[in-house]
Amino acid sequence: MIRRCDRATLATLHPDSDGWPYGSLVLTACAHDSSPILLISDLAEHTQAIAADDRVSLLFDNVAGLDDPLTGARVTVMGTARRSADPADRARYLARHPSAAGYADFADFNFYRVAVIRAHLVAGFGEIHWIGSDALLFDTQGSAALGEAEADIVAHMNRDHADAIDLYARNLLGLDGDGWRLTGVDPEGADLRLGGRVARVGFDKPVADAEGARAELVRLVKRARARNEA
């Protein structure tokens, strides 16, 4: 759910209101281990709150379109928000949110990564669980090569295999529209975007490098074509 969503409700502790919780909408991306990444302005109320107390919560939900939203899944991620100068965080965020390139280099904007402590998952009626960071985050040890190759993989797919990406969206995810683009590849799957819509296809098994990602992307194309023929 964290990987699939491109926005969340951010809760901070506002210093100018005697520590009352302050909620705001933020756009999100995530690192290869699924740690949330934010791009926020120093002038924003939530950023000033983080400067005073870096404890935050992020609510991600999967309830859009449901007749009864409370039957849908949602997860609250708790952690600490710290500025990030990691080029990979920047690259993944801007790939997820291309329009952010227009202000990402403003002096008052900075990237932040949330160091996850634990999360609270509501997956449905009676399916409520606290999840520790060890269980929530993906262990990226051994998959550094994938991070190094990600930009090339994404560029290659968008340039040479645009038809395959549309097949992912249409035949595997049931989504309409042409011109879907890949925005990221991580050990567990690939992210797609078309205009204001985002989607995700998961891999059958985690990948650690470009060859592993290629094998999974090819497998997904074969599966999508088989469904089309059926």
In short:
The protein contains six helices and eleven strands. The chain is of the alpha+beta class and 230 residues long. The strands form two sheets. Strands 1, 2, 3, 4, 5, 6, 7 and 8 form an eight-stranded antiparallel beta sheet that branches. The protein has a three-stranded antiparallel beta sheet with strand order 9-10-11, sandwiched between helices.
Which helices and strands occur, and which strands form pairs?
Layout: E1 7-13, E2 21-27, E3 29-30, E4 36-41, H1 45-52, E5 55-62, E6 73-83, H2 87-96, E7 109-124, E8 127-132, H3 133-136, H4 144-160, H5 162-172, E9 181-186, E10 189-194, E11 197-202, H6 210-229
Antiparallel strand pairs: 1-2, 1-5, 3-4, 4-7, 5-6, 6-7, 7-8, 9-10, 10-11
Helix pairs in contact: 4-5, 5-6
